[in-house]
């Protein structure tokens, strides 16, 4: 293979996609799960994990490719969720908009993208701890806003009975349909993030992460690229917000609380901020602990348990579970090579 | 003290006279008038006037702290001058943003290579090409036969790092980083190329390669170079500007600059 062909195939950037064999095995397993696992596992664990994973994916996208660690991703998710809740016909309390689901979802994603763009514009000059602080402030403000708004958002009670649309003539809430729909959306969004990371926008983001000054010197408007990245992350988080609203059959301020905001960060860090797939792995671990905290120790001790997991991961592997797995693989490879080196050889 | 006017009338073997004749009909590539800049209260540049004609090779010399790199930063838009104006090909760009200066044809390299360490060599050059073109926000991955990718490979050839296209930039040697730095600046098809100590940290073996690359640059390109190494600086220079304490003190042709008493005083001490 010529150098040109080789380089064109490898272009461009580091996508951090899973190897194709692992991807295929994982996909087959996930598709087969409903056949072997009870509904409790597929819906209460996997669907929930994938939805949280989607919101965490939006954070991983910003953090890994742009170097922007944001605490605000539940806000675009919440904007999308509330947009759905106040526009669909069957919601309680009833509203006056009454849009069909297709239009409602489109509007929700448009608003979540707009929310992402706005947040990106507000935070455009901040980095690191200052970015964390400003995004946390926006998240907290949004929580208090939705809690205080009774007229449209029904205050702390929120809006319920958002059942979701029918898919292929069957209600979305049918467990198998919900599982496969969320799985398909998760895979599509994961693929989107991987794809964009190799496109010019993704490369520029990685450039901003590595060297923002050089990015500007090359002719890119770094600030505008940052804002667009937050908009794209808002779109991804918005899809998570829509699915979360369908999953919870409604939305309340608790969905966008500071606790939820921190949970998304914990999920992303546990999985590994440097890997898009880490968002889903972290979400799975988080959901398992959240669900089985009562069996492991005590229902009320969930925060202690997940906190201990979080601390262990941060201390043992700043790159999350994926980082641990990579290190394990490297150690194994080293062991194998040292064993083969120490093996006696027969001189020819 | 500048005597640019008198130097312009003194031809040398590298074509200063040709440049001066051209200057009369075309606006200079770069024209700095009374540039002042300070960090906090400390003045770094004061009253800098500089005219670089189209196609000219200008070398800027000066001891550490003379303000050479700051001058580059002001011209390229990293810093805004506190006083004075900057004109590029006759257009006032004093208030133009940094990325817009790159798009109208000003490219630079940095003293300490500023590269994208997490990306490959090919990605770095591709970004440098795409920075001045449409499609900067594209969400579509370029195809294998994309013309910008083909050009990125040409650039890699030109700066002799073609064999490293798929290497992560963090794994390059210092010399290769300097070559890539130059390649990225060239990739933007600049009208004015500003090189900040291109030979810094290069091994003696790498220096002839750099000199060869600089000699191969088209004469239509205006070049401004900050360089300490006289073996690199003087062979490429049409005019040498010497700075000290944030001001221009001498402008001479290369054959005269080494004998200039002011330059000797700056480099060898007042007693020289």
TrEMBL record, chain A:
* Gene Ontology MF annotations: ATP binding; branched-chain amino acid transmembrane transporter activity
Q: What is its main location?
A: membrane
Q: Which UniProt keywords apply?
A: ATP-binding, Cell membrane, Membrane, Nucleotide-binding, Transmembrane, Transmembrane helix
Report TM segments.
16-38, 45-65, 101-123, 129-146, 177-196, 227-250, 262-285, 305-325
Question: Which cellular compartments is it found in?
Answer: Cell membrane
Coiled coil located at which positions?
none
- Kindly give the Pfam families that the UniProt entry links to this protein: BPD_transp_2 (PF02653)
Give GO cellular component annotations, separated by semicolons.
Answer: plasma membrane
Q: Which InterPro entries match?
A: ABC_transp_permease, LivM-like
- Entry superkingdom: Bacteria
**Record's bilayer topology term:** Multi-pass membrane protein
Q: What is this protein called?
A: ABC transporter ATP-binding protein
Report the source organism.
Answer: Nitrobacter winogradskyi
